[in-house]
Write a structure and sequence with these properties.
By secondary structure, the protein is α/β, with parallel strands linked by helices. The protein folds into two domains: 177 residues, D-Maltodextrin-Binding Protein, domain 2 (3-Layer(aba) Sandwich); 134 residues, 3-Layer(aba) Sandwich (D-Maltodextrin-Binding Protein, domain 2), CATH 3.40.190.170. It contains 14 helices and eleven strands. Helix 13 crosses helix 14.
Length: 323
C-alpha cells in the first residue's frame, strides 16, 4: 500500500470515528515522537481543545510524520482534510529563512518579526497562495552538530561529511564552517551514520536522542548554529469556517501547548544529555564566535536575496533583541 493511499484510509477511518462520536475532528500532524516535549505539547493542545469545547471538537494527534512530510501535509491542509501541522517548514520561503545561522536569538524574535507589517504580509500571502495560516509556534532546542570525532573548534569540522537537510541555507552554512555537507533525507540519517556514508549530522538535542544517533556517533558539539522553532500551521479552509470563539480556543490551546513545551525542555535536555553521556558521547562547547563570523556571508547573501536590503536590516535588528 502506498503512502498516499494509507494516509487517505487513515483519514477516512478517523473522520468516521469522530462522526460516530458526534464530534468534529481536528487532525494534528507532527514530526515529534512520544517522549519528546513537542509531542507532549501536541497532547496538551488536544487536552485544552477537548476540555474547553466539552468534547464538541476532537483532536487526533499523528506523531512521527505518519500523515506525510511537511510538503505532503501542505496539500492536505489546503484541502482541509488535515487541519493542523507542526513542523520546521512554515510553507513560505520568507518565513522559513528566518532560520539562517545565528540570525535569531530565540522564539521571541520569530514572534516579533511575524507581528511586523511585512511579517503579517507574509501570513496573508501564505493564506492566499497556499491556503495555510501560521497559528503559532512550538519551541525547539537549538541545532547542534554530532560527529564520529571530537569537535573542539571549527578546524575539527574541516572536510567532515555532515548530513544536511535538503535546503540551501543548511548546505551553505555547514560549508561555511568548513564541513562537506551531504544532503540526505531524514529517514536515511541513522543508516548513513552507521555505514559511514556521512561522518555526522546536525539537529536539536531532542531529535538526536529520539533518533538514537548517539549510538553511532562519538561527539556532540554545542554550537547553537540555528535556533529554529517549529511552526504550527492551520488549514485556511478549516480556519475560515470556525466561529470566532473556536478560533480563540485554538489560539489559546496553542499558547498552552507552547508553554508546556518550553517548561519541559530544560528538564528533557538535562535528561537526554545525561543519558547520552552515559552511552559514551563526549559533549564539547566550542567558541561560537568563530562560527558566527564564518557564517556572516551566508546570512548576508541569502538574507538580501530573500528579503531585500531594507527588510533584511530590520530582521537583523529584531533578531539581536532580547525577548
Amino acid at each position: 500500500m502506498n503512502r498516499i493511499l494509507a494516509s487517505s484510509l487513515l483519514a477516512a477511518s478517523s473522520i468516521l470515528a469522530a462522526w460516530s462520536a458526534g464530534a468534529e475532528e481536528i487532525r494534528y500532524a507532527t514530526w515529534a515522537q512520544p517522549g519528546e516535549a513537542q509531542y507532549d505539547g501536541a497532547i496538551e493542545f488536544k487536552r485544552v481543545v477537548e476540555e474547553e469545547s466539552k468534547g464538541r471538537l476532537k483532536v487526533t494527534v499523528y506523531p512521527g510524520e505518519q500523515l506525510g512530510t511537511p510538503r505532503e501535509l501542505f496539500a492536505q491542509l489546503a484541502l482541509g482534510t488535515t487541519q493542523i501541522s507542526a513542523s520546521g517548514d512554515p510553507g513560505l520561503k520568507e518565513i522559513e529563512y528566518l532560520a539562517l545561522p545565528y540570525l535569531m536569538k530565540g522564539i521571541g524574535n520569530y514572534k516579533a518579526i511575524l507581528e511586523t507589517d511585512f511579517g503579517q504580509g507574509w501570513n496573508e500571502r501564505l493564506t492566499k497562495e497556499r491556503k495555510l495560516r501560521i497559528l503559532g509556534f512550538m519551541p525547539r532546542n537549538p541545532r547542534q552538530i554530532s560527529a564520529n570525532k571530537i569537535i573542539n573548534s571549527m578546524a575539527d569540522l574541516k572536510g567532515l561529511k555532515l548530513r544536511a537537510p535538503e535546503r540551501d541555507y543548511y548546505v551553505k552554512s555547514l560549508a561555511a564552517l568548513g564541513a562537506n555537507p551531504t544532503p540526505m533525507a531524514f529517514a536515511e540519517v541513522y543508516t548513513g551514520l552507521q555505514t559511514g556514508i556521512v561522518d555526522g549530522q546536525e539537529n536539536p538535542i531532542e531529535t538526536i536522542y529520539a533518533g538514537k544517533f548517539y549510538e553511532v556517533q562519538k561527539c556532540i558539539a554545542m554550537v547553537d548554529y540555528i535556533d529554529k522553532p517549529a511552526y504550527v500551521v492551520i488549514s485556511a479552509p478549516f480556519w475560515d469556517k470556525l466561529s470566532s470563539a473556536d478560533r480563540a480556543l485554538l489560539v489559546k490551546a496553542n499558547d498552552a501547548s507552547s508553554a508546556a513545551v518550553a517548561a519541559a525542555m530544560p528538564k528533557q535536555l538535562e535528561q537526554f544529555t545525561k543519558e547520552m553521556k552515559a552511552a559514551g558521547i563526549t559533549f564539547t562547547n566550542p567558541d561560537k564566535s568563530e562560527f558566527i563570523k564564518a557564517t556572516q556571508a551566508v546570512r548576508d547573501e541569502l538574507g538580501r536575496k530573500t528579503w531585500g536590503d531594507d527588510i533584511y536590516k530590520r530582521i537583523v535588528e529584531i533578531g539581536r533583541k532580547d525577548f
